[in-house]
Structures are given as C-alpha cells and as structure tokens.
Amino acid sequence: MVYTMKHLFISILTLIYMPIQAQHQIPEVIAQEVSTALTYFPQLKNTPIEFKFKKNIKKSTMQAQPTFGSLLKSKKNRSYVILISETVKISDTTFLTKDIPSPVLTGWIGHELGHIMDYRSRSNLNLIWFGFKYLFFDTHIIDAERAADTFAVQAGMSDYILKTKDFILNHSDIDADYKKRIVKYYLSPEEIMHLLEKKSKNDKDGIIKVTL
Predict the structure, then answer these.
(1) Neighbouring C-beta atoms of residue 97, cutoff 10 Å
(2) CA–CA distance, 48 with 81 (Å, rounded to integer)
(3) Of the candidates 4, 104, 134, 210, which lies 20 to 30 Å from 149 by C-alpha distance?
C-alpha cells in the first residue's frame, strides 16, 4: 500500500495522541487502529471509552453503547464502551477480527466512534428511547447507522470508511446476508462520494449537517 503525505501526517498524530489518552481503554492488539481513528475525533479526547473484545455480537462486528451506570450521570460525564466481536465469519472460515486489514479495521472503528458522536449530544432519556427504537424499528436502524457513517465522513474518515465497505461488499466469501444488511442500513459508497462532493462545495469550515 502506498501511503500519501496525509497518511504520514495521521500516523505522526497517532504517535503523539496515544500516550495521553488514559481514559481510552484499548487492547494492545488494536491500539494502532483505534488511536488512528481517534485522531479524527478530537471532540472525544476526554470522553471515557473502553474498547472491549466480546466472544460474539449478534448480527454485527462492533457495537457502540453508553455504559449502563453512566446513564445515571449528566451527558457530559457519560462513558461508553465499544464492543468488538473476536471473530468474523467469512464463508465457512472464521477469522480473528484483529487480523482484518488495518485500514479496514480503522474504518470499522471510525464508524463506531461516529455513533458515540451521535450519542454524546443526546439526553439520557433520549438515549434510552433511541435504544428502544433501534431494537424494534428497522427505519430507526437505518437512520442510526447512516448518521454514524455521516459523522465519520464529516470527520475526514471517508477513505477508511470506503475501504471497510469495499472489503465487505466485494469480498466474495463474506456471508450474503451480512452484505444485504450493510446495503440496507448503511450509506453506500456512492452516497459517501455524494457527501464528499457536498462537503467540498460547502463553506470553508467544511461542515456537513447531520439530520437525525
């Protein structure tokens, strides 16, 4: 893989960023990918986030959520956990998530950080209602997942997000049902490119408004 000056700059930022984020609990095997993704979200610098491997997550590879106890605190004191499935099943073979190509894994993590960006502005009651709707209404899953993608693209992670989608959608051995879920609930590569076009035409701050 050929690295551009942009990737070199991000790598340098990652090395600077990693040692000072004690509130981010990160397994060593994915420290590089998590730290790279976090550099795109400076707003989360002081937000407690635990990245935690889990044996299996139903219908998903990763899952971001507020910690239960923090729902009793104010939103500015809320903490979060990103659960990461230990394995990904491709065809009849199970692979360790940590062995997924680094840019793909970084994009996956960036999407989950997009969820946290969405959560952090919501009240505790709103988050509880958000979780209820996510469990029972397909239309809300679509809104939530597309918002997370949009937050990640807005943060500058489009290259990583596109690599993640390319890995899933164009990997011939990935389960067809999982691909259908990605197509149904998430932004398509074409929609991401459209977002980037809108961003380039926007004013100098490059803000894309996220409709929730």
Answers:
(1) 17
(2) 8
(3) 4
Angle at 115 between CA 190 and CA 197, to 5 degrees: 30
Q: What is the mean pLDDT of residues 139-154?
A: 96
Q: What is the 3-state secondary structure (H, E, C) of the chain?
A: CCCCHHHHHHHHHHHHHHHHCCCEECCHHHHHHHHHHHCCCHHHCCCCEEEEEECCCCCCCEEEEECCHHHHCCHHHCCEEEEEECEEEECCEEEEHHHCCHHHHHHHHHHHHHHHHHHCCCCHHHHHHHHHHHHHCHHHHHHHHHHHHHHHHHCCCHHHHHHHHHHHHCCCCECHHHHHHHHHHCCCHHHHHHHHHHHHHCCCCCCCCCCC
Rounded mean pLDDT, 68-94: 86
User: How far is CA 151 from its chain centroid?
Assistant: 9
- How much is the pTM? 0.83
pLDDT in tens, 40-69: 999 999 999 999 999 888 878 899 999 989
In the chain, the N- to C-terminal Cα span, in Å, equals 36
pLDDT at 205: 56
The whole-chain average pLDDT of the chain stands at 85
Measured in residues, the chain has a length of 212
Q: Is the pLDDT of residue 8 over 50?
A: no
**Residue 207: pLDDT over 90:** no
Tell me the domain boundaries of the chain. Answer: 5-201
